[in-house]
Amino acid sequence: DNDGHEKDEL
Amino acid sequence: MNIFRFAGDMFHLISILVLLLKIYATKSCSGISLKTQELYALVFVTRYLDLFTDFISVYNTVMKLVFIGSTAAIVWCMQWHPVVKRSYDRELDTFRHYFLVGACFVLALFLHENFTFQEIFWAFSIYLEAVAILPQLVLLQRSGNVDNLTGQYVFFLGAYRAFYILNWIYRYFMEQRFSRWISCISGLVQTALYADFFYYYFLSWKNNAKLHLPA
């Protein structure tokens, strides 16, 4: 996917 | 947010609070690896670069600040607190952790989601977290006996990562988009590193004996 890593995980 | 991830975050928080409690209550940091704490401070700083740019939720921001703040406090305590620093096992905590930092950074340059500053440092922090416990496990092996607060610290850290693996399995089945191979594989490596510690921890708990790691 284009927006990189999952942002919501710590 | 699912229950596995929330439980994982809580175990992670508990592990850091247990460590702060041990240092604050006993005014001693014997058995704790400063190098592991330095690696964790680096993990959090390089992973939460988006702390001030992307707002996800209050929970997310608060937890990031707590993780960075508490780990910085532990590193500060072990190096500068006049009483605590005397109990640091300097001669036992000799793992060359700079190699870990270098290796993880090189790996992040090759394996990342996007070739951007933030993504490379994020991948770096994921790889570094997987191996950050090594100086601590080596120190425990060398010091032989594990006092129960330090044992609990490592136990909760392992539980945190184990629950994150459950969280990734859960999200794999529940969500169409699954693009976290970097975290997943790195998290599996990290949990595997704890496996031997868990084995001895469980044995000592079952035999109600003091936790002794084979030298």
Automatic annotation (TrEMBL), chain B:
Superkingdom of the source species: Eukaryota
Presence of keyword Transferase: no
Membrane topology type: Multi-pass membrane protein
GO biological process, one term: vesicle-mediated transport
Record-linked Pfam families: ER_lumen_recept
GO cellular component: cis-Golgi network; endoplasmic reticulum membrane
MF terms in GO: ER retention sequence binding
Subcellular location: Endoplasmic reticulum membrane
Membrane-spanning parts: 56-77, 98-115, 121-141, 153-173, 179-202
Main location: endoplasmic reticulum
Keywords linked to the UniProt accession: Endoplasmic reticulum, ER-Golgi transport, Membrane, Protein transport, Receptor, Transmembrane, Transmembrane helix, Transport
PROSITE patterns: ER_LUMEN_RECEPTOR_1 (PS00951), ER_LUMEN_RECEPTOR_2 (PS00952)
PANTHER family documented for this protein: ER LUMEN PROTEIN RETAINING RECEPTOR (PTHR10585)
Stated family: Belongs to the ERD2 family.
Stated name of the protein: ER lumen protein-retaining receptor
